[in-house]
Every structure is written in C-alpha cells, then in structure tokens.
Amino acid sequence: MENILERFVELGAVKKGHFLLSSGKHSDTYIQCAKIFEYPIEAEKIVGMLAEKLSGLKIDTVIGPAIGGITVAYELGRALGIRAIFAERENGIFTLRRGFEIKEKEKVLIAEDVITTGGSAKEVIELVRNLKGEIVGVASLVDRSKEKQIFDVPFFSLIKIELEIFNEEDCPLCKKGIPFIKPGSRQR
Ligand code: ZN
Predict the structure, then answer these.
(1) Coil, strand or helix at 176
(2) Distance between Cα 67 and ligand 1 center (Å)
(3) Residue 28 Cα, ligand 1 centroid: separation in angstroms?
(4) What strands, in cross-sheet order, belong to the sheet with 14-20?
(5) pLDDT tens-digit profile of 143-186?
(6) How much distance in Å is there from the Cα of 132 to the middle of ligand 1?
(7) pLDDT interval class at 1 (50, 70, 90)
(8) Please, which residues have CB less than 5 A from ligand 1, an ion?
(9) What domains appear along the chain, each with residue ranges and CATH number?
C-alpha cells in the first residue's frame, strides 16, 4: 500500500468536498474511519501498518475509547499479539465495564481512529493512570490535531490530515455557491 491516504479515499474513510459537520461548522474534508472497518481484511492491513510503527514498544494491553477506538484496539491487539479492551462512557465518564481490568504497572497503549483534540484519549489515559497502569503511548489511524504536542506520552499515527474548518459565514465553499453535504444523513 504505497499511498495510505489514497486507500482511505477509496474506502470512503476520507472525502473531499463541502461538508456540514456535526459541530455546525463547514469543512472541505470529511473523515469517517468506520468505513475502513467495513472490510475487515482491509482493516487488518491498515491497522497492521500502524502496528509496525509500534514495534519498539513493550505493550501488555491496548485500550480504545468507545466507539471509534474499539475496532482499532481490536486490530492492534491482533497485529501485536496482545490483549485488547475498550473503555466506554457511563454517566458521561469513561470507565471499564464487561469485566475488563487493568492491573498495577500494566503497560497500556491507547488506540483511537482519529485524534482531533485528543479529548477521549486523554480521559482514557487518566482512567488507566487512576488504575495505576503505565501509559506507553497513543496510537491513532488519523492525526488531524493542530497542536505540536498533544499528549504527555509518545503519539503515533498512520496519516496526518489537515482539515480546513470554517464558520458558515466565512466559508469560502459557501461563497462559491457549492452546496454542502451533511455526512451521515441520507442524500438524494
Ligand atoms: Zn460552507
């Protein structure tokens, strides 16, 4: 797979155009990593490339924040031959349910599909630290963060995607009269 971004576009995980995001802002790019996992054999290859970047790390367990991080954690667990679990929100707070546990000193990697502000990943880092686990890093398929150093642990990503985000009133795509698409809604 020479051009990872091209593969993401082919799978429909990255789209270029004019989009109304759930935040109400407009963008020229839309990212939906769930599309990669529509084809598990593709997902295995793509997440396998992310796993190659982690080869120097000693990891016991990979944990993903639900929902986006679940399949990434699962595939990383397969590629690295380690345990994969996920954290989910209960009353708004990330927690371990379903009998999942993290032991003291356990070496834990956080897995995500897309890192923007890193909010969910940071919450799961805190959860793991509260359980006295050791965070070895964060791994994400896509890095669309703006900050230089978003985490206090090493951050690995497969691709970096720069997004242009606009308020509706300053959106250059609106000014050009290009109709926007609301991703996730039915298109006619
Ligand atoms: Zn617009």
Answers:
(1) coil
(2) 28
(3) 8
(4) 14-20, 26-31, 165-166
(5) 999 888 999 999 999 999 988 899 999 999 999 999 999 987 65
(6) 46
(7) very low
(8) 26, 171, 173-174
(9) 34-161 (3.40.50.2020)
